[in-house]
Amino acid sequence: MAKTKSYNLFVIIAFLAIAFPMVMGWIKKDNKPKLTGIVINNVNPDSLLKKDKDMWFSGEYQSLKDDYNNDHWALKELFVRLNNQFYYDAFNQIRVNQFVSGKENYIFAEAAIQAYYGSDFIGYEKTNEFLRKCKVIQDTLSKKGISFILAYAPGKGVSAPSFIEDKYAKTIKETNLHAFSTQSKKIGLNHIDLAEYFHQIKDTCKYPLYARFAHHWTYYFDCLASQQIIKYIEKLRGTDLPDLSWTEVEISDTARSRDNDVLKSMNLYTSPAQNQPLAYPKIKSENDTTKNKTKLLTIGDSYWYGIVYMNIPYNCFASGQFWYYNNRVVPNPNPAEKTEAWQLDLKQSIESNKVVMLIGSDPALPKFGWGFIEDTYEMYTNPKVYYARIEKNRTIKGFEKQIREKPVLLKKSTKKSQDLQIPLDSAIKLDAMKLAGLN
Questions:
Q1: Can you give the pTM of this predicted structure?
Q2: Cβ contacts of residue 3 below 8 Å, gap of 6+?
Q3: What confidence tens digit (pLDDT) does each residue in 241-271 have?
Q4: For the stretch 353-389, what's the b/e string if a residue is b when 16 or more beta carbons lie within 10 angstroms of its beta carbon?
Q5: Which is it for strands 322-324 and 296-300: parallel, antiparallel or unpaired?
């Protein structure tokens, strides 16, 4: 009798455990998880099935429905956060792809650690050839009255090496940052070494320049870096730009702006204490339209985004565009659809500006320019070959854009990049070639 009661109780508990998520799904109507950095499929295939009945017989509907249900089941957000919390508390591991936890809760991108120790060094031959092309571009644009600049930003490995876990330590022989900076000086390239500037001020600066739970430098260093770039362009071009200044600095224990961007992506159940007072200047841009005429085109990684958020391009650089990884165009010039750099006329885009600047952190240097230098160099030195190649690749680029904009396709490419251990852009290109019937 006792065994029967125990068995019945077990069956009831098991049934409730199985039924609970379904019941929650009925009760909780908005089941989209509020998770950062995770691609969520928001397209319910039920709406697609009404238009295309063949999806049912091909099996496509079932696959899409499984993917949609997996993204929208009622307890997904809770279970993801609890799982991430367990790994963080028990093993000091963060469930963010290609990021690791260091000493005193400092978070690092694996690429930033590799860049600091020189594990990603591309060699002098590739560095010199890349910079030679940059010098050709600089000289070509100079004749047109356009300034060309390279800006080297300090990644977190360079900026906070004492917080990298000892297991990653190795002898530093050469780094891309050192090679790029040294060779730029040698051949007379216009360049701003923000990493060198960082090291000049870090010991005397009153406020943190890198936050524990951030991938990028702090909002405070965003302000300082902006000032340095403005001063450099003023000197290079002999012009006067709108000044960026502040008289008040607010100190906060709670991170703002991008000063905890990785913490958001960690998707924890309970956020750890930040215990780090951070500085937030109340910036003022000089409102002088007679000075705000030096239009700047910036091709860069996510470090420039912080400066975009501060409206520096609008207030100081005549509303110049930002090409994020030489891809997404910010601000978007076409309200009807998102615009990518390959959709624009490269020559016209470059020559409508007074300054063209490439900016990237040291982990970005192995792929610095993200194709911009190669394209621009070929366009000016061998235009016939350039335009033929661009036209040939236009179809693939279109499919790449389609993948980036559709969560269903982007999820597949993201999984492929993880399975094959290749960059996401490489996985997207493989899938685009497949859609184009080229592999």
A1: 0.86
A2: none
A3: 999 999 999 999 889 889 999 989 888 888 8
A4: bbbbbbbbbbbbbbbbbbebbebbbbbbeeeeebeee
A5: parallel
